[in-house]
Backbone:
């Protein structure tokens, strides 16, 4: 079996009810319940206009920089509801996918979304789509179709490790990765955190929030609070 040219068809998938539970939560609240250590780089931005959050199991693709042959393999083998996660070896010079391939993924495969750690093209149309599309940038320059590459192996996307079957959650803030084996434990914590966060927002808005902890923290960390003007 040639390493670098492998396509795995099977994945360990998360419980669909767990995946559905994350669909109602902001990515930021879930990330806060994971020690704020799961968010993809802000270089990966939302490029379309979905009316819902992106959530689904990761279908991972590792491409050679600027090559999309294994993304075509993803078109063949991904499943409805998947989030395609594409690692591109850090390249940002060639688009990996555009409207033609995206149309197939949206209309025929009915994926939940796509995350591209690289450029896309045809943004004039894609920017108005309801399909959640995340990418680094755009460029008219097209990709090669030679390989190598691999499908459904662990990848690094947006500086975050993603394994096939991990839960990918995206909203206008960006994208996070929830490890599949931890998803059932994280979901109730994130749901409780979200309820607390909504109550906190109301308290801040009404001015009833208790900020005395800020004074204590500044004192404990050795800050000086000076009732005077700064003079160089």
Residues:
């Amino acid at each position: 079996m040639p390493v670098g040219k492998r396509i795995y068809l099977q994945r360990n998938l998360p419980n669909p009810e767990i995946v559905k539970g994350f669909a109602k939560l902001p990515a930021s609240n879930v990330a806060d319940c994971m020690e704020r250590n799961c968010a993809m780089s802000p270089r990966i931005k939302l490029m379309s206009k979905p009316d819902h959050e992106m959530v689904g199991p990761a279908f991972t693709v590792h491409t050679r920089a600027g090559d999309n042959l294994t993304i075509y393999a993803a078109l063949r083998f991904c499943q409805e509801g998947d989030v395609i996660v594409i690692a591109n070896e850090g390249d940002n010079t060639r688009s990996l996918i555009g409207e033609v391939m995206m149309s197939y993924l949206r209309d025929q495969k009915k994926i939940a979304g796509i995350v591209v750690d690289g450029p896309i093209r045809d943004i004039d149309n894609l920017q108005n789509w309801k399909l959640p599309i995340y990418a680094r940038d755009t460029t008219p320059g097209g990709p090669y179709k030679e390989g190598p590459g691999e499908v459904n192996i662990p990848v690094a996307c947006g500086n975050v490790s993603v394994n096939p079957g991990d839960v990918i959650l995206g909203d206008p803030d960006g994208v996070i990765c929830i490890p599949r084996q931890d998803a059932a434990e994280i979901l109730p914590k994130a749901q409780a955190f979200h309820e607390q966060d909504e109550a906190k927002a109301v308290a801040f808005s009404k001015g009833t929030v208790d900020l005395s902890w800020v004074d204590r923290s500044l004192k404990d960390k050795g800050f000086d609070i000076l009732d005077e003007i700064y003079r160089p």
Summary: The mean pLDDT is 96.
